[in-house]
Write a structure and sequence with these properties.
By secondary structure, the chain is mainly alpha-helical. The protein is built from 22 helices and 6 strands. It has 2 domains: about 350 residues, no CATH class; about 120 residues, no CATH class.
Length: about 525
């Protein structure tokens, strides 16, 4: 049976990698993907990288992984390959060790989050998914491998702010289980007492604590940060319900089969679903509490992770489906570790029999629910992959290829909006800088500080190009994610070179203009 499970895991992993590689080859990366690559590529040292990361709102583990790759080759395709490999390892571990049936594992592998959001779109979240999976694999023998648990959670805290919240949930639950669980969890008490050397456990907890603290310190923004600076502590019931709705987005990511598929949800196009959406989300939370209520460790992880994420979405940053997906990952993680989490001590035998019957019903209902949710994920994943093949995700790659084909890659360049144009810069591959009028400076990646918060109208962009043209005494290439009016072009003798419009990421279509030398 073990060999059969291993073969099934390997087979599904190779199939996943084949589908993923084919889809990734059709995926044009967008600015958030390229930003991480540019940060890793153009930072002169690790210390320089962490100085730049202060404006990013993410810890630096993903960027540290990219730094060595960026020294091997300048093409961001290297990042795509590493990212897909990370998710492939996740798929193998899940299929090999997760306590789900073969059909649920199949659905998981080709679900929207795993197949598309955390495999094709190359971001730091795939590392979080991998480390959560490794934690689940280690959980059964956690007190024998607690240093490894500490190392995994240390790294998990440094993948994203959302993974950090989940790490806090796991760390708190493990702490409560170890220090207070002996009173209520008889099987745990016997297991812990059997461990003669407690030092590895203490080392593990220290690693978890250091991981959380250092990640929080990294996320503390500098005084001149200019991105997502607002906090919302006002209580509004409508906003609470709107945030709770994110649970349905995470649990039921059925993508719409349309041009603007990314981040869409087919279910929200049905009035009936909209009418029950809030109630459904509260039901999913209540059912989860009932499902995990006899396993305090799983229950605590679910509660702290879910409410921690929802609170973050409420007071700080609403986020997108890639962020909301951690709500579902927290739920699925708790379903995985449920069997290996110690149960609350039962009293009388009659009560135990009664509770066992209730537990059996809940477990069967939970199995059905997980299967239905994973079916929705698989439908969303298949739709997203098919839409990726049909449509251009971002025109950054094709614009860069056109610039190189015309021999313009060495021209002085001016670009706006900076965050969109940075995609083109990343695909130009050779380390170079472009002038961003929005921050009044040269750069490749975007620095999210207050210096770039002013607007950059077309006239300002043209004046910057004129100044650069005079300094260099040659033509200047202007890259915009919008068109310049004919009258303004004629007034400044601009030549319209090419345009690339109609991408899934709507503001990553580009217009190219040449400013003649003085």
């Amino acid at each position: 049976m073990d060999k059969q499970d291993k073969r099934y895991a390997l087979g599904l992993t190779f199939l996943f990698l084949a589908v993923g590689a084919f889809t990734a080859s059709h995926h044009e990366m967008w600015r958030d993907e390229i930003q991480a690559w540019l940060l890793a590529r153009d930072s002169t040292s690790v210390f320089n990288l962490f100085a730049h990361l202060k404006y990013e709102g993410h810890p630096g583990l993903w960027h540290l992984c990219l730094m060595p790759l960026s020294r091997i080759a300048h093409s961001p395709i290297m990042m795509q390959m590493l990212h897909l490999l990370i998710t492939g390892v996740t798929v193998y571990l899940f299929v090999r060790y997760a306590p789900f049936n073969w059909f649920q594992k199949l659905l998981f592998c080709f679900g929207y989050l795993v197949l598309y959001e955390y495999a094709i779109v190359a971001r730091n979240y795939a590392l979080g998914l991998l480390l959560i999976t490794v934690f689940c694999v280690l959980f059964k023998a956690r007190y024998k491998r607690f240093i490894w648990i500490g190392c995994v959670l240390f790294l998990l805290a440094h993948t994203s702010v959302h993974a950090l919240i989940v790490t806090i949930g796991i760390g708190t639950a493990l702490c409560c289980e170890y220090f207070f669980g002996g009173r209520f969890l008889k099987s745990l008490s016997q297991e812990v007492e059997a461990i003669e050397d407690k030092r590895p456990i203490w080392i593990g907890f220290v690693l978890i604590g250091i991981g959380i603290i250092t990640a929080v310190l990294q996320l503390n923004p500098p005084s001149d940060t200019g991105f997502a600076v607002a906090w919302n502590f006002n209580f509004e019931i409508k906003r609470v319900n709107d945030i709770v709705k994110l649970i349905s987005r995470a649990y039921l990511p059925v993508t719409r089969p349309v041009f603007g598929f990314w981040g869409s949800n087919l279910l929200t196009t049905y009035p009936f679903f909209l009418s029950i959406q809030v109630s459904l989300c509260y039901f999913l939370m209540l059912f989860s509490l009932l499902l995990f209520h006899k396993r305090p460790t799983a229950l605590l992880i679910y509660l702290i992770s879910t409410f921690g994420l929802l609170t973050f979405f409420y007071i700080k940053y609403h986020g997108s489906i890639r962020h909301h997906g951690f709500l579902f990952l927290a739920f699925l993680m708790c379903c995985w570790i449920y069997r290996d989490a110690p149960a609350i001590n039962l009293g009388k035998a009659e009560q135990a029999d009664k509770d066992s019957a209730i537990d059996r019903v809940l477990n069967r209902a939970g199995t059905v629910l997980v299967t239905l949710l994973l079916i929705c994920h698989a439908i969303g994943g298949i739709i997203a992959v098919s839409m990726e093949h049909r449509h251009v995700f971002s025109y950054g790659k094709l614009t860069a290829e056109y610039i190189k084909s015309q021999g313009m890659q060495d021209f002085p360049m001016v670009g706006d909006i900076d965050y969109a144009v940075s995609t083109v810069v990343g695909y130009l591959e050779e380390p170079r800088q472009i002038y961003y009028p929005r921050g009044s400076r040269l750069g490749s990646f975007v620095r999210w500080d207050k210096a770039r918060t002013h607007d950059a109208p077309d006239t300002l962009v043209i004046e910057a190009a004129k100044t650069l043209s005079t300094e260099k005494n040659r033509e200047v290439l202007i890259i915009l994610n919008r068109a310049i009016g004919a009258e303004l072009r004629q007034q400044h003798n601009l030549t319209s070179v090419a345009k690339f419009t109609g991408s899934v990421v709507g503001d990553e279509g580009f217009h190219l203009y040449l400013m003649p030398p003085p």
